[in-house]
Amino acid sequence: MREIQPIAVAPVDTRCNGVVLLHGIGVGSWTLKRLERALQSHGYATLNLDYASRKKPLEELADEIHASIAAFAEQCDGTIHFVAHSMGGLLARVYISRHRPARLGRAVMLGTPNGGSEVADLLKDFSIYRAAFGPAGQQLTTAQAPVLIDLPSPDYAIGIIAGCRTIAPIASAFVLPRPNDGRVSVTSAKLPDMADHIVVKASHTGLPRHTVAIEQTIAFLHDGRFRAI
């Protein structure tokens, strides 16, 4: 996990609102760089964390990232939001349930398998999948892990962005319910208590870099709802 970098400076006449960014499994903070730059350009301080997504289950990852997020929150005098891609959204939910920031704001999830992924169902017993994605990979199935089943209903606003294009046509056509982004179906991305939901024409890996998804993320953090398209 990387050290906290100096936060972006917010305008002098406003409070410093922060955004914690959490990447998906098997990748790193670099996947959220374009989104991070856009958030900074709108005056948000950012903490774009790297974490050992392939080596520990969600509950251990939540505890591991806590010190960095707590230190970041101390540097901000405003609201602390969360923006997460893929499994990062599950990690955000677990983290908030265990280490809720005192000034918690809103959360945006991009392509998060809140209902599990049928792709994980198909691959979970293969040794190569287990080696590549570790304990957290086993928690991505539709038969959800206890740590996710036991999560309380969120009392904070969650906006969910799902994709409906794919670069994985076999999984999209034969494994996942349609529409989907090649990894996660639109239905699986939803939560019963979400504040808002929108579908954009992006693949799973493309969601954090998609112009409309980025614009809608910023809109939800600002207004608590997505803009009509």
State the assembly state of the protein chains: single chain
Q: How many beta-strand segments?
A: 6
Q: Output the number of helix runs.
A: 9
CATH fold descriptor = Rossmann fold
CATH superfamily: Alpha/Beta hydrolase fold, catalytic domain
CATH class designation: Alpha Beta
Which CATH architecture would you pick? 3-Layer(aba) Sandwich
In the predicted model, the low-confidence regions spanning at least 5 consecutive residues are 1-14
Largest sheet: 6 strands, parallel
User: What's the Cα radius of gyration?
Assistant: 16 Å
Q: Element order, helices and strands?
A: EHEHEHEHHHEHHEH
Termini Cα gap: 37 Å
Helical content band = 25-40%
| Strand order of the biggest β-sheet | 2-1-3-4-5-6
Overall form = globular
Number of discrete domains: 1
- Average pLDDT works out at 91
Supply the helix-strand structural class: alpha/beta
Q: Determine the strand fraction and express it as a percent band.
A: 5-15%
Structural description of this entry:
This protein is of the alpha/beta class and 229 residues long. The chain has a single domain (18-223), classed as Alpha/Beta hydrolase fold, catalytic domain (Rossmann fold). The protein has nine helices and six strands. The chain has helices at residues 33-41, 58-75, 87-99, 118-123, 127-138, 146-149, 169-174, 186-189, 211-223, and strands at residues 18-22, 45-49, 80-85, 104-110, 158-163, 196-200. It has a six-stranded parallel β-sheet with strand order 2-1-3-4-5-6, sandwiched between helices. The longest helix has 18 residues, at 58-75. The chain is globular and about 50 Å long. The N and C termini lie far apart (37 Å). Mean pLDDT is 91; it is low at 1-14.
